[in-house]
Amino acid sequence: MPRVDDTTTLLDLTHAWHRAIARNDADAIAAFMAPDWVLVDHDGVGTRENFLSLVATGRLRHSLMKPVPRSERVRVHGDLGYVTARVLNTAHVEGREHHADEWTTDVFVRRAGRWECVLSQVTAARPDDDG
């Protein structure tokens, strides 16, 4: 059985990470990611270095990164945990605005007492999908 504080910690970490993404703060975003973090989305597999470079150069910006109320699910299995949520976001890719309604899953591993994200997976949500 996971400790309540692990569940709360992962949810709080995810919210803080979303705020860092919406602020377009590459250093703050990086603090949540493991060195080997990857993103899996409709474009395939992306690396930590590429994602952070896009943010740092302004080629990728976010103005909204917000979970849909009551969509978040947190599970903890020892030193591995994940957060799945429906997230609304507005991204600006090389100046073009994109609105997204997505299911995200962030997988965290606890290393040396600290949770860090090793994998993020993003899937477009269906309009009628309430989880």
Provide a descriptive summary of the structure in words.
The protein is of the alpha+beta class and 131 residues long. It has one domain (4-124): Roll (Nuclear Transport Factor 2, Chain: A), CATH 3.10.450.50. Helices cover 26% and strands 51% of the residues.
Which stretches are low in confidence, meaning pLDDT under 50 for 5 or more residues running? none
Mean pLDDT: 95
The tally of helices reads: 3
Helix fraction, binned, reads 25-40%
CATH architectural designation: Roll
Kindly identify the CATH topology.
Nuclear Transport Factor 2, Chain: A
Radius of gyration: 14 Å
**Highest CATH level, the class:** Alpha Beta
Distance between the termini: 23 Å
Bulk shape: globular
The counted number of beta strands is 7
Give the helix/strand class. alpha+beta
The profile of the biggest β sheet is:
7 strands, mixed
Note the run of SSEs as H and E: HHEEHEEEEE
How many structural domains in the coordinates?
A: 1
Strand content: over 45%
Quickly list its features.
131 residues; alpha+beta; seven-stranded mixed sheet
Condensed summary:
This protein is α+β, with helices and mostly antiparallel strands.
Give the helices and strands, then pairings.
Blueprint: H1 4-23, H2 26-30, E1 33-41, E2 44-47, H3 48-56, E3 60-67, E4 73-77, E5 80-93, E6 96-111, E7 114-124
Parallel strand pairs: 1-7
Antiparallel strand pairs: 1-2, 3-5, 4-5, 5-6, 6-7
